[in-house]
Structure formats: structure tokens, C-alpha cells
Specification:
The chain is built from 10 helices and 11 strands. By secondary structure, it is an alpha/beta fold.
């Protein structure tokens, strides 16, 4: 990465069979960010109609067409090699900007050297807030998530953070749907762990940011709309598999010794429980999630 003094922020977007979402995302960036000082770099993971993306190219928008699906983390690592900005911002193609508050992220990093990564509050299309951040993960969180108790866990976390609504909030991680780092730190850390295909790579990256002695901040004054689910609904089986696979890989990075053994037990209990509950409750195309759970168990049992 060679910083360009005229470029402050490089926005990295990984696309896969989502041209409509990508076009809306790029249009929202153009509409709300000030002219100049930023660039958009899009890596397409081998979409069926990838040639359509060429229509989005502009002096500050570069499209790179990949030949295969590298996954989210590896594709971001590849496109980051072309970035010229002092700051990198990974942005999902199913996000939309409401205003120029996205620029608060690099500004915050510049003003707070103790912060290594930061992100905005993510909103649903109806304006409600998403859980696009979290406290540092631990076995208690794993247990709550496995037993459908994560709602209470998150509610308590939200209530603590809202005591300081002006922020910034010191958190364990922010969502990879919109996360900003200094380009120098990204290079030092090696970007996303390429072992992750899709899911938990953002949590693992933020763990490494904190292990480097830096903090992860969430800025409640900055808001980005995240139309979460548009991609996953097109292939519930694949989404479910990669979520469980990512969780398993993350545990390998997060825990050691007896703690890892406990985490593995919780993982198996969680997948089996969700499969059984899904077999009873899921209907229609959502039942393909069941195949995702069995794929994950097979991937673990027969690597």
C-alpha cells in the first residue's frame, strides 16, 4: 500500500452476486461524502454477471474482477493492496450512507492514537439499531449464544453503553460491515486472517488490534444503514455453514487448553440444539439452514 497525500480514505468493498446492492451503496457514498479525499476499491468475488460492475467505474471508483470466490477476508486483503489512503474502511455492499458521518471514523482515528479500529452504529432499513458490535467474547457469551440467551446479554451491554450516549464506546469488536483502521496498522496485522471465509473474521481482527495494545471504539454519533440479510437469504445453507465454521475457527484463535475444550463442547451443543429447534420451527426455503448445520458438523468431524 502506497499512501497518496490526496487520498485520505480508501473504502474497500467486496461484492458477490449483488450488483443492485453495490450500486446503491456506491451511489450513497458519492451522494454524501465530500468531493475528493477518498476512493472506492471494489473486489468482485467471481459474480455471474461481473461485467455489469464496470458501469460503476469512475476516477475515484476502481473495480477489480476476481476469477473465484475468495471469501470476505481474503478478498479484502487483496483489494487493500491497491489502496492509497492513510485509512482503510471495509464496507459491505449492502450498506447505505445517510449522511457524511462516515468521515468521522478516520477523523476519530487521527485524533485518538490509542484507538486502533472503530466503527459506526449500524441501523436496519426501518431505523432500528443492529447489534453490530460486542464486548470482548468469552465462554459466558458462547454459553448464552448457544442457549438463546444472547438477547439478555446484549440488552445489558447496550444499557451500560447508553450511559455515555455521546461516545466513543470502548468495545471488544465492531462489525466488518463497516470498520475503519489505519492502513499502517492493517499492514502490520496482516489484514483479515485468510483462514476465515465468511463470519467472525472481524471479531478475530479486533482481538488482534486489542492484543497490539490498542482500543476498539464504536462512535454512536456515526450511523450507517445495513440491509443485513439480503445476501444470506439467497443461500441460507451456505450462510449457516460459514457462520458455524467461522465460530469454530475463531475458538481456535481465542482459547487455549481447558477453555478451548469447553468452547468446543458448547459449539457442538449449540449446533445440535439449533438443528433440532430449526427442524421443528423452520419453514420453506429457511429449512435449508438445516443442511448448513449438518455441513458444519461434517466439516468438523471429517476435516
Amino acid at each position: 500500500m502506497i499512501p497518496d497525500e490526496s487520498i485520505s480514505l480508501s473504502i474497500l468493498i467486496v461484492s458477490y452476486n449483488g450488483f443492485s446492492d453495490l450500486r446503491r451503496c456506491v451511489d450513497s457514498v458519492r451522494a454524501h461524502l465530500p468531493a475528493g479525499g477518498w476512493e472506492i476499491l471494489v473486489w468482485d468475488n467471481g459474480s455471474q454477471n461481473a461485467h455489469e460492475l464496470r458501469a460503476l467505474e469512475a476516477p475515484n471508483v476502481k473495480i477489480v474482477l476476481g476469477n473465484e470466490n475468495l471469501g470476505f477476508g481474503r478478498a479484502n486483503n487483496e483489494i487493500a493492496k491497491l489502496a492509497r489512503g492513510e485509512f482503510l474502511l471495509c464496507l459491505n455492499p449492502d450498506t447505505l450512507l445517510k449522511d457524511a458521518s462516515l468521515m468521522d471514523l478516520p477523523a476519530h482515528l487521527r485524533m485518538h492514537p490509542e484507538c486502533g479500529a472503530c466503527g459506526p452504529l449500524l441501523e436496519n432499513l426501518d431505523g432500528s439499531l443492529q447489534d453490530g458490535w460486542g464486548e470482548p467474547t468469552d465462554l459466558w457469551w458462547d454459553f448464552c449464544e448457544a442457549h438463546y440467551l444472547q438477547g439478555g446479554y446484549r440488552k445489558r451491554a447496550w444499557s451500560r453503553k447508553w450511559r455515555t450516549p455521546e461516545g466513543p464506546w470502548k468495545v471488544g469488536f465492531v462489525s466488518g460491515a463497516c470498520i475503519c483502521l489505519r492502513a499502517s496498522l492493517w499492514k502490520k496485522l496482516g489484514g483479515y486472517d485468510p483462514a476465515f471465509f465468511l463470519n467472525h473474521e472481524d471479531v478475530e481482527l479486533c482481538d488482534r488490534v486489542r492484543k497490539a495494545g490498542l482500543q476498539v471504539h464504536l462512535l454512536p454519533s456515526s450511523r450507517v444503514v445495513h440491509a443485513e440479510g439480503s445476501t444470506q437469504r439467497s443461500d441460507w445453507r451456505r450462510y449457516t455453514f460459514h457462520r458455524q465454521q467461522g465460530k469454530w475457527l475463531y475458538q481456535t484463535r481465542r482459547y487455549r487448553g481447558f477453555a478451548l475444550l469447553v468452547a468446543r463442547s458448547i459449539w457442538w451443543e449449540s449446533v445440535l440444539l439449533k438443528y433440532l429447534v430449526g427442524a421443528v420451527l423452520l419453514r420453506g426455503s429457511a429449512r435449508s439452514r438445516l443442511r448448513g448445520f449438518t455441513d458444519a458438523m461434517r466439516w468438523v468431524a471429517f476435516p
